[in-house]
Amino acid sequence: MRAILTAALCLSAFAAISNAGAAQARRAAFGALADGTRIDAVDLTSRTGVRARIITLGARIQSLYTPDRAGKLGDIVLGFASPQRYFDDGNYFGATVGRFANRIAKGRFTLDGRTYQVTVNDHGNSLHGGSPGFDKRVWTIESLHDGASASVVMSYVSPDGEQGYPGALRVTATYTLTDSGELRIDYSATTDRPTIVNLSGHSYFNLASSPAHFSTMRDLLQINASHFTPVDDTLIPTGTIAPVAGTPFDFRTPTPIGLRIRDGNDRQIRYCHGYDMNFVLDGRPGTLRLAARVEDPRSGRVLEVYTTAPGIQFYSGNFLGGSFVGKHGIVYRQGDAVVLEPQDFPDAPNHPNFPAATLDPGVTYHSVIVYRFSVRR
Ligand code: GLA
Question: Model-level pTM?
Fold first, then answer.
């Protein structure tokens, strides 16, 4: 924690580069799926120059422009320029993932004495809500707001029994871009029957934003977690909560991502093909606290991730195979992104020692992610 505070003192927040008006939210057309379904976009702009495009397919971040240390804006998230590419792809670029982010072993869990089977889509397990998950649904734009901050509220109603999950779940994802250039996501959900829920944002960050220096292996990563949840070879947690000390998962001080990613002595690294692990965040779940910080030394861009969630998945883009072309004509290769997914612990419904991920009628689920952008001079 001390290291994070010291680093923060060296950073400069962005000065407003234009006095033109306050933050704005504007609706735009993004395109259509092959079957003709229209996909809309909402552009959030702030006076700092930071701007984000959110699309209704998966309530996802399609682009996110932030300045580097020279003030040059660059798109710092991976993705596509057209809706059908997102629809056909299995990487969850920028998406809201749910009902249950991350994995449920064999897609099976027991709630109030009854066993439920949800769809499986990942080595016999259920990943990110099964198939199709919330990332492939077309969300509704409920409202837009301008002012000191710009925001959009998107909603999706998942019917009782969808993908096998109990209860009709009403979900909203609210994206807010503040005038200081901070992007906040508020996820809310209510249900009409006891159920489980775990919502997360699945943005692939590349702070360099330059094809010539696209690998993230030199990025400095810090994660405020003293423990992690080791997995088996299908990435299902064993149930152990292990200390990070002495492992390649110790990111308590800023460490280049590539430094230990090839540690062949570490079974967890081998199982994950790099990093693909849930970290147990320090501090009290439910309070908004700094979870992780990434710095790209070349561009100077710094991303801080704050959340109320108990855990965060760090995935180092291990399954990007160099086989397709993304936005801006860039081929995505292994290690080209830092994915930080604040979340409940994977497979929580099957581990009584993990924080519960249940939701009852009359209670509102609320989880927050804040992405704060700055530069190191
Ligand atoms: C999550 C998972 C990864 C991978 C990506 C999407 O981060 O933990 O194993 O499935 O989503 O490719």
Answer: 0.95
